[in-house]
Amino acid sequence: MLQDGALCWLPDGTARSRTPGKVLTAIGRVLEPVSQTPRMETGLLGAVLLLCMADVLHSFAIEEKEDIFKRMVCPAFLMFDNAAYLADMTFELPCNCKPEEVSNVVWYFQKNMGGHETTVLTDFSGNMVIDSGHIHVGSNVLKRFTIRMFSLIVFRAQVSDSGHYLCGTKKGDFFYGYDVDVQPTKHITVAFLDIGQHVQDDYTAKAFSVFTTFWDWTKCDRCGVRGEQRRIGLCYMQSARLHPRYRTVLANVTSCGSRAVPAQLQRSGRRWKPEVAVRSCMVPCAQEDNPQEGVQAISNVIHKLGQKPWLPRVPTQFHKHPLGRDLVIACPEARPEHAVAWDKDSVRLYRSRYLVGVNKTMRVFIDHGNHLHIRRLRFSDRGTYFCWREGKLVAGLRLRVDYQAQRRRSLDDPETIYTIKAISVSYVLVGVIFITVHVCRCCWRVLGCPART
After folding, report:
1. What percentage of the chain has pLDDT greater than the value 90?
2. Helix ranges restricted to H, 248-328
3. Interacting residues of 110 by C-beta distance below 8 A, sequence separation 6+
4. What φ, ψ does residue 395 adopt, rounded to 5°?
5. How wide is the angle at C-alpha 92 spanned by C-alphas 89 and 94, nearest 5°?
6. For residue 310, what is the DSSP state?
7. What is the residue-wise DSSP string for 99-123?
């Protein structure tokens, strides 16, 4: 393998390259017998020139990638780039600049600038997330991050992850900073455009204005049948009183939860909730490449003999769950910002009916992270649940509901703790009522009021 540059052969038989001359001479001697054939010379020359151009472009691409930190100069005064996300999303923060001699970076997290509590996020001790599907909601940020190519990746972000993220070294030298605002999904505003609902109107005051900035519409979550599209909107504020240390894409515009917003305006920003707009869509399914006629006939016979006709041809997992327990189903390799849909057998579970918050008494619903929730499992919930991702049917879960097996309860069991708390609270309430009644009767007697018979 040549390390110094690309090799180009010219029509006159010479070669030009940054490779040392001895290597070129050796290669020229090997190719000399082949170039003497007149008929093969033209085709061979064209192929060599084509490979030469591809090699040169590849060399320039590698050189440009290696010099990215040389061209990006770190600011003399540390600034913070504003970035806003919705809860349960996964976000990535690149370390856009660092000295060339620094080979490893350390990320620091501070809730408030100048605070005494600083969380160090580093992979030096082997803290590396391998499978993001094993991450639980509500876990500490130390269990939900990884560092890849100097970039910090936080999985399933929570509102508590909002704050300042700084890229630096182990000694405490900082190169780049972010102001991250993770906005909650609780009490989120949902607008179903098909039934005439509208998004929130902008609010303008004397010193600021609050509005919603929407992302692009997702892909249609189903193909061949009626599907749905979702559009996420985050809260943003415009004011001339923003802190100048925070850098924004537009002048005087930042997310509502940013630390650039003055304290007297943060309360107004918290009242404005994120929004989700949902509308119907219809797209055809992509046609797969059909095999030849003979192979097609053989595959049809094999399909009819080896597969059940009432089930789609997707990977299906079998799961047994106890009666009366709660169940949460996640779509494989799906992220909260993806277009995800759910079906039970042949029934479409549309968001216009099953999105969380549509009905307060919902037992089966889809959350804003695209998970399917089933509370207090019943025998009628048995069936096959299919998952669509980005408009394609990708997986199925065949659910079986059984009676819960009897097991011994320990004192640290969550249900045991809940039962003990409920019984304790009941005894306390009964005791308070009993004591209050007797105290009232004693006071009644002391005051000299005759008791009624």
Report:
1. 32
2. 263-271, 293-306
3. 117, 118, 119, 163, 164, 166
4. -160, 165
5. 165
6. T
7. -TT----EEEEESSTT-S-EEEE-S
Do β-strands 364-366 and 383-389 pair in parallel, antiparallel, or remain unpaired?
Answer: unpaired
Length, in residues, of the chain:
453
3-state helix, strand, coil in the chain (%, to 5): 25, 30, 45
Burial of 232 (0-12, 13-18, 19+ CB in 10 A): buried
pLDDT in tens, 187-212: 888 999 999 998 888 888 888 999 99
Q: Compute the distance between CA of residue 210 and CA of residue 216 in angstroms, rounded to an integer.
A: 20
30 phi-psi bin (left φ>0, alpha ψ -120 to 50, beta other): alpha
DSSP 355: B
Structure tokens, 80:
């913070």
Alpha helices in 272-399 (DSSP H): 293-306, 351-354
Q: Hey, is 190 helix, strand or coil?
A: strand
Q: Tokens standing for 251?
A: 């002048």
Distance CA 175, CA 73 (A): 9
Give the range among 95-104, 152-161, 164-173, 179-188 with minimum mean pLDDT. 95-104
Find out whether 34 and 40 touch, Cβ atoms under 8 Å. yes
Structure tokens at 92: 């990535």
Closest CA to 235 of 183, 278, 198: 183
d(CA 177, CA 400): 49
Please say whether the beta carbons of 88 and 336 come within 8 A.
Answer: yes
| Separation between Cα atoms, residue 161 and residue 135, nearest integer Å | 15
d(CA 115, CA 14): 67
**Residues 6 or more apart from 86 whose CB is under 8 A from it?**
182, 183, 185, 232, 234, 274, 336, 337, 368
And the tokens for 265?
């305006």
The H or E element that residue 436 is part of is helix 414-446
CA distance to 242, 417, 431, 433, per residue, from 424 (Å): 50, 10, 10, 14
No. of helices (H) and no. of strands (E), the chain:
7, 25
Query: Residue 105 burial by CB count (10 A; 0-12/13-18/19+): exposed, middle or buried?
Result: buried
**Mean pLDDT, rounded, for 37-41:** 46
Report CA 48 to chain centroid distance, whole Å.
Answer: 45
pLDDT tens-digit series, residues 411-433: 766 667 878 888 999 999 999 99
In this structure, the dihedral spanned by the alpha carbons of residues 31, 33, 39 and 44, taken in order and rounded to 10 degrees, is -10
Question: What's the CA dihedral at 419, 424, 426, 431 to 10 degrees?
Answer: 170
The most distant pair of C-alpha atoms in the chain lies apart, rounded to whole Å, by 131
In 10 A of CB 62, how many CB atoms?
10
